[in-house]
Amino acid sequence: MDSSKSDNRHDIFSEEKRSHVMSKVGSKDTEPEMKVRSALHRAGFRFRLHVEDLPGTPDLVFPKYDTVIRVHGCFWHRHDCKKGRQVPKTRREFWREKLERNEERDRENQEDLEARGWTVLTAWECELEKCPESTIETLIERLTNE
Questions:
Q1: Which domains does the chain have, with CATH numbers?
Q2: Torsion angle in degrees (nearest 10) through CA of 79, 30, 116, 110
Q3: Phi and psi dihedrals of 82, rounded to 5?
Q4: Distance (Å, whole) CA 71 – CA 60
Q5: Residue 11 main-chain phi, psi, to 5 deg
Q6: Which stretches of 90-131 are DSSP H helices?
């Protein structure tokens, strides 16, 4: 079989239904993002959400600290963990290109933010699942010591 063509034999949805399902995957107010927001707010931090005039529309923006926090899903942003290394079994070339472009865009946005004087912190989905308390503590330390 030609590996450049999609293999949808194992997909339970039609291509149209799959497209609809994927369009509903949210990029804002995700469970990991809400964990970070809630914990930092309880700790007394105030921030702006999804500032559109900053590169990449960071999830949390702390103007007082010149810092942004990006809360990344491991799969979508290719974290170096089990979930981040997964590649779907169908449409491999499509997914490889899409995820590589996500990585490239993340790098470009980070470089642009840093060039504008922002410190960029990233909270990963897997870290928030495995050890939420220490992940939040690390974010707080980095926010207040930068």
A1: 28-145 (3.40.960.10)
A2: 10
A3: -55, -50
A4: 8
A5: -85, 130
A6: 92-115, 125-130
Shortest CA distance to 72 belongs to which of 107, 96, 48, 41?
107
CA distances from 24 to 15, 18, 20, 72, 124 (A): 15, 10, 7, 17, 21
Output the six-digit token pair for 140: 């707080």
93-121: average pLDDT: 96
The Cα–Cα gap between 25 and 127 comes to: 20
Structure confidence at residue 11 (pLDDT):
57
Phi, psi of 64 (to 5 degrees): -60, -30
Please give the Cα distance from 115 to 53 (Å, whole number): 15
Q: Which of 77, 69, 80 is nearest to 121 (CA)?
A: 69
Number of residues that make up the chain: 146
Cα–Cα distance measured from residue 106 to residue 100, given in angstroms and rounded to the nearest whole number: 10
Rg of the chain (C-alpha set): 17
Q: How confident is the model over 16-54, as pLDDT tens digits?
A: 765 555 544 556 789 999 999 999 999 999 999 999 999
C-alpha 100/C-alpha 84 separation (Å) is 12
